[in-house]
Amino acid sequence: MTFAISLVAVRPFTSPRAVPSGVMDDTLNTTTPTPSVAVLFDQFADGVYTLGFRIVGDRHLAEDVVQETFIKVLRSLDTYRGDGPIAAWLYRIGYREAIAATRKRRETPLDPDEMLEADDRQVTSVEDAVLAAELTRRLDAAIARLAEPLRSAFVLRDIEQLSTTEVARALDVSASAVKMRLARARQALRVELKEYLA
Amino acid sequence: MTVTCDQLEMLLPEFFDGALTAEQEAAAADHLATCTDCRTVVSELEGVSSLSRTHGRLVLPEASRNRIRAALGLDPPPSDTPA
């Protein structure tokens, strides 16, 4: 079963407006007091879990990434100086934890079907779940096949909706490098998922 | 200002960031209005981002969320049901 979308028919070809950071809200900018760890956990735990799983490829290790990330956030939040978006600061910690966790990962081929459980996915109905099952399997596999530098940039920008600048800060690379990685990642996924994009 | 297919491809990162200048945006729109191939590419790349946004995010399982919250010494999340 295919799950086609028809963007051509419904979207005008004008440049989309700048995408705001979906995981940021007005309470988490640099002009307001630093939020508590509890607030950060509620807002970013799923995002760090997503980043962790996409890098590590193991659900349990991804949970460890979340825990280790927020332990470090707990210990170092008072050193956060507000010199950039807190999302980028937090995802930078998460990214480093995920990279460290890859060293622990057992050397087995990545199989998202076995590693994900139904409650890992945001679905709104049984029908959605059925329609999305094949697509999500293909999407998971395609993302997993991206080289890691492309994958982390793609996850943070296109899934977690950070801005390009925030992604650059999180990964400690230039904005130009992020744009190049995104272009390559999107192009690779476009090829792999073409049948769903018709 | 006009752009070719190759030039449009170079502009795509800024296009998707909504960061084109007004002149670049107008040139891109003009090109896309007449170039089926580029229109398809842009549409499919937008589709990749859209599908990834809607289907690529995972949710930390509730039991794990509660376990980690406890490990961090955070209060349990408020119940969905009023007391």
Number of strands of chain B: 0
What is the gyration radius of chain B calculated from CA atoms? 22 Å
Percent in strands of chain A = under 5%
The helix fraction of chain A, in percent, is: 55-70%
Largest sheet of chain B: none
In whole angstroms, the N-to-C terminal distance of chain A is 13 Å
* Low-pLDDT residue spans of chain A: 1-30
What form of chain B results from the Cα inertia axes? elongated
* Number of spatially distinct domains of chain A: 2
Q: How many domains make up the 3D coordinates of chain B?
A: 1
Radius of gyration of chain A: 17 Å
CATH topology of the largest domain in chain A: Arc Repressor Mutant, subunit A
- Termini gap of chain B: 64 Å
Task: Summarize this entry quickly.
The complex is a heterodimer of chains A (198) and B (83). By secondary structure, chain A is mainly α. Chain A folds into two domains: 34-107, RNA polymerase sigma factor, region 2, helix turn helix motif (Rna Polymerase Sigma Factor, Chain: A); 123-198, Arc Repressor Mutant, subunit A (Orthogonal Bundle).
Question: Can you tell me about this structure?
Answer:
The complex is a heterodimer of chains A (198) and B (83). Chain A is mostly helical and 198 residues long. Chain A folds into 2 domains: 74 residues, RNA polymerase sigma factor, region 2, helix turn helix motif (Rna Polymerase Sigma Factor, Chain: A, Orthogonal Bundle), CATH 1.10.1740; 76 residues, Winged helix-like DNA-binding domain superfamily/Winged helix DNA-binding domain (Arc Repressor Mutant, subunit A), CATH 1.10.10. Chain A has 9 helices and no strands. The N terminus of chain A is likely disordered. The two termini of chain A are 13 Å apart. The longest helix of chain A is centred in the N-terminal third of the chain and has 20 residues. Helix content of chain A is 61%, strand content 0%. Chain A is globular and about 50 Å long. Chain B is mostly helical and 83 residues long. Chain B has one domain. Chain B is 67% helix and 0% strand. Chain B has 4 helices and no strands. In chain B, helix 1 crosses helix 2. Chain B is elongated. Chain B starts with a helix and ends in a 12-residue tail after the last helix. At the A-B interface, helix 2, helix 3, helix 6, helix 7 and helix 9 of A face helix 1, helix 2, helix 3 and helix 4 of B.
